[in-house]
Amino acid sequence: MRAKDKNIDLEFLRAAALLMILFQHAEVLVSSSHQLYWDIRHHLNLWGSVDLFFCVSGFIITRGLIQTFPPGPGEDRYLISRRLGWKNTALAFWVRRAWRLWPSAWLWILLSLGCAVLLNRSGVFGNVGRMAWDALAAFFHLANFHWAGCYMQELATCNMMPATLFEAHLPTGWNLAVYWSLSLEEQFYFLVPLLLFFIPKRWIAAAIGLALLALAPLSRDPLGLLWFVRVDAILVGMAIGWATHVLEQRGRRAMPPAWLRGKWLIQLLALGVLLAIGWLGAGERGGRAGTITAIAACSGLLVWIASYDRDLLIPSNRIARAFFVWMGNRSYCLYLVHMVAYFLTIELWFRAGGARGPWQQVAYFATAAVLVSAFAEITARWVETPLRRKGHARAQPWLARRGSQPDQILHA
Q: 203, 301, 310, 294: which is closest to 258 by C-alpha?
């Protein structure tokens, strides 16, 4: 990759994944009579967009650790330097991740609880006591196991409740369910510096390959236990991070292959791959053996193209480009806030007497879009960005001791 702050194609992939998630979860805003939406959902179930996020994270974190802790003389066997020792290496990484992610996540856990107490006349935020358990699981990065347990016990222990005061196609109160994927990523962040520190680089590809071969034959039904701990896409992202580093060391990755130089063809391919991710997750296909690994492979193809950092995926149109870059840069905050904004939209319109007639969906979508955008921008500007910089400063003593290159992954 070129030495610059951002890989714009990775930002595009984050934005594309986020748009798919926003559309998927808009189900809480859409009435059962909105036939077009449900027809689309019948053919495209977009939960696999989370796997695209996982793949991007696996790639970025692996590359970032290699760049921040490059192997020194005599350390050719390993991907990252061992001179600091595993404790200092891991602590430097964990400090940066914690300051980058935790404050914003904690803020929206607290705000969700606040909505359940103070802005819940419609009952859309469910039960405060149940949400407290959801919040506790999210706080300790165990939400994936918590929600898996909820579904195994037929939702008896989590905040997913039937709506009684307004028309709803789905249960309400589950705005903290999105933390399941954040918890899985946090578990990955805890392990990855240790794995890269202790495992020689020649074994990493073999270990990832064996893990994927073991996972591929598994049937992982959506919302089952194995579905909530799926790591296929993370492993694929790590493999791409490993491979790009090895190829760059050998001088074999200066330019993309010839077939990657037609931008409109690449963008058409990317659209087809994104649709394939949705198609794989729809209907009975979602629970078949190999589906999650196939979604991870699709995600890996897109991340591999983006890894060249040649602006192959991002649209050339200035307005579209600015939109996708903004969404990619704000994707973490947008993910955190969107379900709260969706439920708050329902609550506000309930208090206003409800939207009626053909304009109901327009009113709901417009209100939700304003709330999601505003909440994400405020969180990014006033919480995520300044505290990310603070985490960078807190980790600097470890990084400076090694003479590493922290600025290259400031925006990871």
A: 310
Structure token digits, residue 50: 């989370």
Helix (H, G, I), strand (E, B) or coil at 172: strand
Q: What is the residue whose two structure tokens read 């020689």?
A: 200
C-alpha of 127 from chain center: 27
Angstrom CA distances, 354 to 119, 165, 276, 284, stand at 15, 11, 37, 36
Summarised one tens digit per residue, pLDDT across range 147-199 is: 999 998 878 789 999 999 988 888 999 999 999 999 999 999 999 999 999 99
CA separation for the pair 319, 327 (Å, rounded): 12
- Calpha distance 200→93 (Å, rounded): 19
Tokens representing residue 139 in the block: 């706080």
How far CA 158 is from CA of 175, 233, 341, in Å, comes to 11, 27, 20
pLDDT digits (tens, 9 = 90+) for 82-132: 888 899 899 999 999 999 999 999 999 999 999 999 999 999 999 999 999
**Phi and psi at residue 172, to the nearest 5°:** -120, 175
pTM (2 d.p.): 0.94
| Structural contact between residues 341 and 334, judged by C-beta atoms closer than 8 angstroms | no
